[in-house]
Specification:
This protein has 202 residues and is α+β, with helices and mostly antiparallel strands. Helix content is 46%, strand content 23%.
Length: 202
């Protein structure tokens, strides 16, 4: 009788644990997927389905992450994950249009870890994905803005130079070099830094 009671308790605890995991997974704003050891999709949450514009009923049992040709760039990390290693994925560009999905360009990163049973046996692989597209777009916009500024700065006919708050030369354009008669940026830096040192020191 005691053995049966303990078995029931263990089964109830396992069932409760599975329900909690399922609730956490489904309510997560980050896309999550559970994969069988051969790479086949066993389960995924709503966030993952939304990200990939996928039909859960069609994806489960049919999609295989290890044979997805659009994930070749992170194939080594995927193979390590399926060997049982917990790891972070590098930033990766995924073209949803080429993959036949809606949504356009997508930058992702993520983490994979093995899902083990009580005996330590790996039953599944869990992957959590983060959409970093907006951050990458902001970085690209900043890069283009800085490049545009540099082009204007170096091609303007008016002499212009910038200094730091301590008076040290930060940058100088070719027109300004010509006006002051400096041979190059380093010569301008030495002369201008020396000429402003006393002003900023006081």
């Amino acid at each position: 009788l005691n053995d049966i009671t303990e078995l029931n308790r263990a089964e109830n605890a396992l069932r409760e644990s599975e329900m909690k995991f399922k609730a956490v997974m489904e309510q997560s704003t980050l896309p999550m997927l559970i994969l069988d050891l051969d790479g086949t999709l066993a389960d995924a949450n709503g966030s993952w389905m939304k990200m990939w514009s996928a039909d859960k009923n069609l994806a489960i049992g049919n999609y295989n992450i290890l044979t997805d040709p659009h994930l070749e760039g992170i194939k080594p990390q995927l193979e390590r994950a399926f060997a049982g290693e917990a790891l972070d994925f590098p930033e990766y560009f995924y073209d949803r249009t080429l993959a036949g999905r809606e949504g356009g360009d997508l930058w992702i990163t993520g983490r994979a870890y093995p899902l083990k049973d009580g005996a330590g046996k790996i039953n599944n692989i869990v992957i959590i994905i983060e959409d970093i597209t907006k951050r990458k777009q902001a970085e690209e916009a900043l890069r283009l803005s800085e490049e545009k500024f540099r082009n204007i700065f170096y091609n303007m006919t008016v002499g212009y130079f910038r200094t730091g708050i301590d008076g040290s030369l930060v940058d100088i354009n070719p027109a300004c070099l010509k006006i002051f008669g400096f041979s190059d940026v380093e010569a301008a830096r030495i002369n201008l830094n020396n000429s402003t040192a006393g002003v900023y020191a006081s």
